[in-house]
Amino acid sequence: MHASTTKLLLVFVSASMLIISHASSLRFHYINHHNFTAKTYPSSSSVHGGNRNPSFALVRRDAVTGATYPSRRHAVLDLVARDNARAEYLATRLSPTYYQPADLGSEVVSGLDEGSGEYFVRVGVGSPPTEQYLVVDSGSDVIWVQCRPCGECYAQADPLFDPATSSTFSPVPCGSAICRTLHGSSGCDDSGSCQYEVNYGDGSYTKGVLALETLTLGGTAVQGVAIGCGHRNRGLFVGAAGLLGLGWGPMSLVGQLGGAAGGAFSYCLASRGPGGSSADDAGSLVLGRSEAVPEGAVWVPLVRNPQAPSFYYVGLSGIGVGDERLPLQDGLFQLTDDGAGGVVMDTGTAVTRLPQEAYAALRDAFAAAVGALPRAPGVSLLDTCYDLSGYTSVRVPTVSFYFDGAATLTLPATNLLVEVDGGVYCLAFAPSSSGLSILGNIQQEGIQITVDSATGYIGFGPNTC
């Protein structure tokens, strides 16, 4: 069967190599959980609580907008362009010389076919709830939706939220403590309500009034959540009504829920699949503990960056290809005292970015391991591509992340390559334009990931989606 009309089944066959073969269905599983090096969670008694946690599905962006492209290559080129903007934005925002703190279960949907690496979640806004698709963003704090009356709005899949129809919409006074948490980015409108403004690195922005509102999350109504009601919005959000910030800061949804969520949330991004997958495939997002924190996960300490307190950093000590650990200089992934470098987990970036030295070593080791597979021209920043249209199966090396504390994560084979055209696949890694490393959502797909900021750990596995 031709690669462009089949889906890709990736199965672990050894510690050092993976087989990629064409199949009629796409399913991922861990073989005896051996792709994770076991590590005991430091405080297991604190992570298992009640079972009434908001749970909702994550959905792919193409399921929301229904947009089409002339070819998959066009879709990937759009993805890369948007991904570059996101990576540059993070690098600029996390620079020690420039930081703006003002940028502050349901189904999850992927945006590959829409030129976006983001995932959407369905949230009810107001009372009665108006259903809206929001972008899930672990690197942002502010929750916002486009609102009527709208002086400037981009196209979204759902009708605009109208605060006049909600009985629980309450503008925040400009002198309140909540308004002051915007770190000076807020002002007052003529009625004395708190104004907010968030600017993104690609030129996107949202401006409007900060308000307290009821959000319905996976059937659970949460009252008094501070959200931005955007009356002037511009950007590449493509179909989404706004953004659901899940960052480490106090204005994020997790920060506002406090004791209700315990600082913990779990997500599983359904894999796109290198051969394509159904737009109806959904991942999951769970707020709080109990089922959000699975038994058997590998736990890695979170690293706090005082210069960028919204972001979830992890300590990465090295990378392996096959059975070999790459010979990289010590401290290459270390977060410096002035807030530069480090490794950020980000749901809004698709392709993992690594420092040039690390990327070059990974690329060369990967290319050497696959041997004589026919090369294809690179696609934008994806410079290591192969024409696999004439193959029913190929062998590729595993890629492993070695974290501080002796934990190792070996990626599922589906998380290594992305299809950019009929039968053409590219390594889904790229060099960083700065010292910052970003673990993107392609590498996170299919893995149950739990963030527990209260205890300072992030867990990988063992469940998949």
From TrEMBL:
Domain (Peptidase A1): residue spans on this chain: 119-461
Origin superkingdom: Eukaryota
Entry keyword set: Aspartyl protease, DNA-binding, Hydrolase, Protease, Signal
Gene Ontology molecular function terms on file: aspartic-type endopeptidase activity; DNA binding
PROSITE patterns registered for this protein in UniProt: PEPTIDASE_A1
Signal peptide range: 1-23
Gene3D superfamilies (alphabetical): Acid Proteases
Matches recorded under Pfam families: TAXi_C (PF14541), TAXi_N (PF14543)
Transmembrane segments: none
Xref: PANTHER family: ASPARTYL PROTEASES, PROTEIN ASPARTIC PROTEASE IN GUARD CELL 2
Protein name (record): Peptidase A1 domain-containing protein
Organism: Paspalum notatum var. saurae
